[in-house]
Write a structure and sequence with these properties.
Blueprint (H helix, E strand, L loop, with lengths): L2 H22 L6 E5 L2 E4 H17 L4 E4 L2 E3 L6 E9 L1 H5 L6 E9 L12 E10 L4 E6 L5 E2 L2 E2 L12 E5 L4 H14 L5 E3 L4 H10 L4 E8 H13 L3 E6 L5 E7 L4 H4 L4
Parallel strand pairs: 3-5, 11-12, 11-13
Antiparallel strand pairs: 1-2, 3-4, 5-6, 6-7, 7-8, 8-9, 9-10, 13-15, 14-15
Helix pairs in contact: 1-2, 5-6
Length: about 260
C-alpha cells in the first residue's frame, strides 16, 4: 500500500467530518446514549459513516475499526482506526476543543516497541482540529507535521517547568486510581491541564505545547493516530493493554520527563 496516498485519503476524510463539526457546534445535538461521564451523539455515528465511505472508496479492502463500530475484518493485514469525534462531551457542550482522529495500522512482522498487543503498528496518523484548522500528519519513519510544517517535542527536563495533561477515564476504578496521583502531580508541575480530547493532548505533546500526557483506560481509536505523530516528533509513547477491548494505560511525554513523572501502576 502507498502510505502517502493513504495519508492524503485520511486528510480528506478528516476535513469532510471537520466541516460537519463546525456546522453543528452550536446546533442542537441528538444523543444516542448518556452516562455519568460520557455522551454518544447521533453525529458520532454519522461522522464515522462518512469516514468509512470516504476511505473505503479508495481502499475498499481495508477494514475500519472505530469507536462507532467495525466495517470489514479488523484482523486483516491493514485496518483504519477511527475516532470520528474525539472529545464528544466537549463538542456536545459547544466547547470547541474536539477533533477527528484517523490512523492506518498494518499487521507487524514481529514484536517491537511500536507494536500494539494485538500485533498491529500504526503507519499513518492524521488528527484534525476543525475549530483551529490544525491538521497533524505523520507517516511511519517520517517527520511529524502540523499544517505541513515539521514539529518537534519540547526539550523541558524539569517537572516544575512542565505542563502535563491528564485524563480521567469513565470507570469508577480508573477515576479512583487517578485522583491520588493527580493530587500529588499538581504540586510538582507548572500546570496540569484536563482538556477532554485524547488525540489533541497527544498532538499537543508532539508540538511542544504540553510536555506529557497521562491517562488510564484510554481506547485505541483515541491514541493510534496521535501516538504515531508524537513518536515521529521525537517523543515517547508508552502504553499497555489493560483488557481485551482495545483499552490501554498510557504515558506520553517529550522523552525527557518519563522517570520524574512517577506514574503509579
Amino acid at each position: 500500500m502507498n502510505l502517502n496516498n493513504a495519508q492524503r485519503s485520511a486528510v480528506l476524510a478528516a476535513q469532510t467530518v471537520g466541516k460537519l463539526m463546525r456546522v453543528h457546534l452550536h446546533a442542537e445535538k441528538r444523543a444516542n446514549s448518556v452516562t455519568q461521564h460520557d455522551i454518544k451523539l447521533e453525529l458520532d455515528v454519522r461522522s464515522q459513516h462518512l469516514i468509512e465511505k470516504s476511505l473505503r472508496s479508495s481502499f475498499p479492502k481495508v477494514a475500519v475499526l472505530g469507536e462507532e463500530g467495525v466495517a470489514g475484518d479488523p484482523n486483516a493485514e491493514y485496518r483504519w482506526v477511527v475516532d470520528p469525534i474525539d472529545g464528544t462531551v466537549n463538542f456536545a457542550y459547544t466547547i470547541p476543543h474536539a477533533c477527528v482522529s484517523i490512523a492506518l495500522q498494518r499487521r507487524a512482522a514481529g514484536p517491537g516497541p511500536s507494536v500494539y498487543e494485538d500485533g498491529y503498528e500504526t503507519v499513518v496518523g492524521v488528527v484534525y482540529d476543525p475549530f483551529c484548522d490544525e491538521m497533524w500528519t505523520a507517516v511511519l519513519g517520517g517527520a511529524a507535521r502540523l499544517n505541513g510544517k515539521v514539529i518537534k517535542v519540547s526539550r523541558r527536563r524539569r517537572l516544575n517547568e512542565a505542563i502535563v495533561s491528564i485524563g480521567f477515564a469513565k470507570t469508577k476504578q480508573s477515576l479512583e486510581a487517578t485522583l491520588p496521583y493527580f493530587v500529588k502531580l499538581v504540586h510538582r508541575v507548572r500546570k496540569v491541564r484536563i482538556m477532554g480530547a485524547a488525540a489533541l493532548a497527544l498532538t499537543y505533546v508532539a508540538t511542544g505545547r504540553f510536555d506529557a500526557y497521562i491517562e488510564r483506560g484510554i481506547r485505541i481509536w483515541d491514541i493510534a493516530a496521535g501516538g504515531l505523530i508524537l513518536e515521529c516528533a521525537g517523543g515517547e509513547f508508552w502504553r499497555k493493554a489493560v483488557d481485551a477491548n482495545h483499552t490501554y494505560r498510557m504515558i506520553s511525554s517529550n522523552g525527557l520527563l518519563r522517570k520524574t513523572l512517577a506514574v503509579p501502576s
